[in-house]
Amino acid sequence: MTSQEVRVRIAPSPTGNLHVGTARTALFNWLFAKRYNGKFVLRIEDTDLERSENKYVQNIYDSLKSIGLNWDEGPDIGGEYAPYKQSERNEVYVKYVQKLLDSGHAYYCYCSQEELEAEKLEAQKEKRDFIYSGRCKKLSPQDAEKFSTEGKQPVIRFSMPSRFLTFKDLVKGEIEFDTSLTSDFVIMKSNGTPTYNFAVVVDDIEMKISHIIRGEDHISNTPRQIILYEALGAKVPEFAHLGMILAPDRSKLSKRHGATAVSEFIEQGYLPEAFVNFLALLGWSPADEQEIKPLNEIAGQFSLDRVSSAPAIFEFDKLNWMNGMYIRNLPLEEITQRSLKYIEKYDLSVYTEEQLMKIVDAVRNNLTKLSEISDAVIYFFGEDVQIDEETRENILKTPESQQVLQEFSELAKNFDYKDTEKINEQLGEFRKQMKPLKPKQVMWAVRTALTGRTHGADIAVVISLLGRDRILKRVQNAITANV
């Protein structure tokens, strides 16, 4: 590692909710900063004024915080290099543009869209890539004044030198570009708005960013940016480009595969701890091969030399597995509190806090997302239970089930409802009494009558929590409904 202070940044555009790809990039920057006692900076790239919205800025804040990624400097908390929104930094960009104009690295371009299109068509006819001719670079002061008098608004272009440029990427290794294949590019639009490649370099210089960790889709921007750094006499930061995140079918991850925004995943019931743990494994692997670990432990082990240059596959099955593990292993009181938002539609007042914890504990082993608890606990609430017609026909209406329920209704009058161990013992005796029926036949009938399902929470816990009156009522309903 370099001896310089580590300063990294994430600079999302507020044109939509925070995407998981951007969140993964933010996470790797955050981990790198924590690993080397550096600073993690949040910058908002909102120069696209038509598409940028404050609600998306808020979503960026909320999403990063929800997965534990707090920043050291940013628009909401300030910092030594404020402001941290590009829309508030125009004076800075104007100063740097003038510096490039004065040094001869940039020039005014008055070419119209029609003239540029004509150059593109010519390139197509000659079957070559379009590279702007650079004719405005040789524009005389008289012609420039004439265009200005005519009301033409120029863009400002950077004069791209022709050379072979090589840089060492901390993930991809050595990368080489032939800059002669790159046009003189626009750094300031005619309306005075800076372009991405220019603004990002200026901001990173001003904010003393030491390492740029970002997606590999930005590799093609790197030569322009490196040459801008050099033209401005600034130290070039180190670059690390991460492999893209792909869907299981190896296509670009999109809404057709499911959720793509961090806030969507959290709303669906993915625990932030599980989700950020999963994100960390999208391209990075721990040396100890232990996949489930808290964020602070991941930060202590993180290094770019264990980041793969290959694309990472967003495996929903693995995310579900990991989330289920976290649901099962978090302290019961905590997971109960987090579950309340998904079950508040039920009348929770019928249970004590301790009983609610028992309900959550009884169903959490089968959950992959916390939102699933809403359906998993439904039979604990209300006097009666819903049983679909197919289940009723195939299970409850058989003579064997009816016999089981008749006998069970007598047993239910004598349960010790406060003792689940005792209930289990009584159920064990009951299964023996019902021979030659198989235990499975016996318990399916009982469980279906009480819960409307053949699988679910420990039946002794269900019986204990439902209590004598509701048990007897549900069993009686299951019997009389078949008469």
Task: Summarize the structure in words.
With 483 residues, this protein is mainly alpha-helical. Among the domains are: 89-242, HUPs (Rossmann fold); 255-333, Glutamyl-trna Synthetase, Domain 2 (Glutamyl-tRNA Synthetase, domain 2, Orthogonal Bundle); 383-480, Arc Repressor Mutant, subunit A (Orthogonal Bundle). The protein has 19 helices and eleven strands. The protein has helices at residues 20-35, 54-66, 90-102, 113-125, 141-149, 196-206, 222-231, 262-267, 272-280, 295-301, 316-329, 332-343, 353-363, 373-376, 389-396, 399-412, 420-433, 439-451, 459-480, and strands spanning 7-10, 39-42, 106-109, 155-158, 164-169, 173-178, 185-188, 211-215, 238-242, 245-246, 312-313. The strands form five sheets. Strands 3-4-7 form a three-stranded antiparallel sheet. α1 links the parallel β1 (7-10) and β2 (39-42). α12 crosses α13 (353-363), α16 packs across α19 and α18 packs across α19. The longest helix has 22 residues, at 459-480. The model has no long low-confidence stretch (mean pLDDT 94).
Summarize this entry quickly.
The chain has helices at 20-35, 54-66, 90-102, 113-125, 141-149, 196-206, 222-231, 262-267, 272-280, 295-301, 316-329, 332-343, 353-363, 373-376, 389-396, 399-412, 420-433, 439-451, 459-480; strands at residues 7-10, 39-42, 106-109, 155-158, 164-169, 173-178, 185-188, 211-215, 238-242, 245-246, 312-313.
Features:
single chain, 483 residues, mainly alpha, Rossmann fold, Glutamyl-tRNA Synthetase, domain 2, Arc Repressor Mutant, subunit A, 3-stranded antiparallel β-sheet, two-stranded parallel ribbon, 19 helices, 11 strands, 45% helix, 10% strand
